[in-house]
Amino acid sequence: MTYSDASVWGIIAALALGTYLIRFSFLGLIGDRPLPPVVLRMLRYTPVAVLPGMVAPLVLWPAATDGQTDPVRLMAALVTFGVGYWRKNVLLAMLAGALVLSVGLSLTAPR
């Protein structure tokens, strides 16, 4: 399926306008008012929910292994979770997971 240049630019413009309107509805219309405490409490957990939601598919069904779970990535995710739970430090957990992933991938790489 091919699109003309005008169609592609029209789609890009429509998506840009939609993104702007979504952001404006939150920032422009209610940005100067204080939010209720329950909303602020829920917004505090947004990064905690988004990051695992982005990482979990890459760990459980990576494209590099044709959708099969990769033991190295799974181990790195478990180490990241364990260090984060144990130390309560996000950066330390991510560094530990990255270290396990890089060492594991270098050990399992074909020679």
What can you tell me about this protein's structure?
This protein folds into 2 domains: 1-33; 37-108, no CATH class. The chain starts with a helix and ends with a helix. With 111 residues, it is an all-alpha fold. Helix 4 (71-87) runs antiparallel to helix 5. The protein has 5 helices and no strands. Helix content is 77%, strand content 0%. The mean pLDDT is 90. The protein has helices spanning 5-30, 37-44, 46-60, 71-87, 90-108.
Give a quick account of the main beta sheet: strands, pairing sense, barrel closure. Answer: none
Succession of helices and strands: HHHHH
- Taken together, the total number of domains comes to 2
Question: Kindly, what is the distance between the CA atoms of the first and last residues, rounded to a whole number of angstroms?
Answer: 40 Å
The number of E-state strands comes to 0
Please tell me the overall pLDDT.
90
Tell the overall outline.
flat
> Compute the gyration radius: what is it?
21 Å
Helix fraction?
over 70%
Number of helices: 5
Pick out the low-confidence regions: none
Structural class: mainly alpha
- The percentage of residues in β strands lies in under 5%
